[in-house]
DNA sequence: ACACGATAGACAACCTGGTTCACTATTTAG
DNA sequence: CTAAATAGTGAACCAGGTTGTCTATCGTGT
C-alpha cells in the first residue's frame, strides 16, 4: 500500500523520539518534552529572543514566548533584558539546559549506531541520503503546529 | 549530526501529508484534516463504533467519539443505532467519505511513483524495507496525541 | 426472573501547543 | 520630534488529546 510510507516515517520519528525521552527521563530529565531539546538547539550559544526564535522555528512570536516561559520554569533557559534595547529579552540556555542537550546528543548518537548495526552502515547512509534528497533544506522550520506528540 | 535523522523522518512525513492535503483541497475536499483520511481507513467497509475505533487507533473512546462527530459534521461519516444493541452506534463512511478516500489513494500512489522516479525503484524499495525493519508492526496504533499538525 | 456488573456513548473540565487580535513600551527613521 | 516599526505580553480561541462521571442498555449467575 502506497499509504504506508508516510506512516512509516511518522512511526520512525516517534519511535526514535520516544526512546530518546524515555532515556532522558532516566538520566534526570523527566520534564523534557519532545519539543524542548529541539528549541534548546534552536536558541543556540549566542542566545536569542522570542521573536527571533519564532522566526527560526516558523511559529508565531507568542507561541515561541510561551515555550520559552515553560522552559524557563523548569530551569532550562533564563531571560535577561538586553541593555542595548530594553524591549528585547535575551533567552539563554542554562547549565541544566546544556546538560540535557549534551545527554540528548549522546543518546541520539547511540541510537544512530544501533540503526547502523541493524541495517548496515552503508544502508543507513543511503537512507539518509535519500531522505535529504526528498525533504526541504531547512530542518528548523518544521512549519508544524504540534509536530510531535 | 545524528540528530538529523529523526527530523528528516518528520520532515518526510509532513512533506507528504501536506502535499496530499493541498491536492485533496484542490480536488474538492478542503475540509479534510490530516487525521481524517487515516480515521476513515480505520473505520473500514463494515463500519465500526466509537469504542472499537478508539481501540484500533490507540486513543480513548471519547477522543474517537469527538473525531467521529467532527467527521459527521462535514459529511464524511454517518451514525445509526445498532438495532441489535441500542447502546451502540455504528459509524459508516458516506459516499463523500469514500470519494475522499479514493482520491487520497490516487494521490498517494502518484506521490509514491514520484519518489520511485527520483530515488530509483530499487532504492525506494530498500528504504521501505529498512523502515519496516526499524518500526513497530501496527501501523494504526500511532499512540500519539496529535501525530501531525 | 431479576439484580448486578460490564459496556456504549456522551458531557464536562482540563492539558498542550498552536493561532489571532489587541495592547504597551521602546526604538528608529524621516 | 513625531510617526512607524518592533518586542513582549495577555486574552480568547482551536484541535486533538486526556480523565472522571453519568445514563442507558445489555448479558449473565443464581
From TrEMBL, chains A, B:
Residues 1-136 form the HTH marR-type domain. GO terms for molecular function: DNA binding; DNA-binding transcription factor activity. GO terms for biological process: response to stress. Signal peptide: none annotated. Keywords: DNA-binding. InterPro entries: HTH_MarR-typ, MarR/SlyA-like, WH-like_DNA-bd_sf, WH_DNA-bd_sf. This is DNA-binding MarR family transcriptional regulator. It comes from Nonomuraea soli. The lineage of its organism: Bacteria, Bacillati, Actinomycetota, Actinomycetes, Streptosporangiales.
Amino acid at each position: 500500500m502506497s499509504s504506508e510510507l508516510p506512516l512509516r516515517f511518522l512511526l520512525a520519528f516517534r519511535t526514535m523520539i520516544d526512546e530518546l525521552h524515555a532515556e532522558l527521563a532516566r538520566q534526570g530529565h523527566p520534564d523534557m518534552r519532545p519539543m524542548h531539546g529541539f528549541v534548546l538547539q534552536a536558541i543556540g550559544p549566542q542566545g536569542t529572543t522570542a521573536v527571533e526564535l519564532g522566526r527560526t522555528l516558523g511559529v508565531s512570536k507568542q507561541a515561541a514566548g510561551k515555550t520559552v516561559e515553560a522552559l524557563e520554569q523548569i530551569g532550562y533557559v533564563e531571560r535577561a533584558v538586553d541593555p542595548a534595547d530594553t524591549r528585547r529579552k535575551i533567552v539563554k540556555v542554562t547549565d541544566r539546559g546544556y546538560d540535557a542537550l549534551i545527554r540528548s546528543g549522546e543518546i541520539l548518537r547511540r541510537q544512530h549506531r544501533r540503526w547502523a548495526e541493524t541495517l548496515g552502515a552503508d544502508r543507513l547512509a543511503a537512507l539518509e541520503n535519500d531522505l535529504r534528497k526528498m525533504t526541504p533544506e531547512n530542518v528548523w522550520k518544521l512549519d508544524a503546529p504540534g509536530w510531535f506528540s
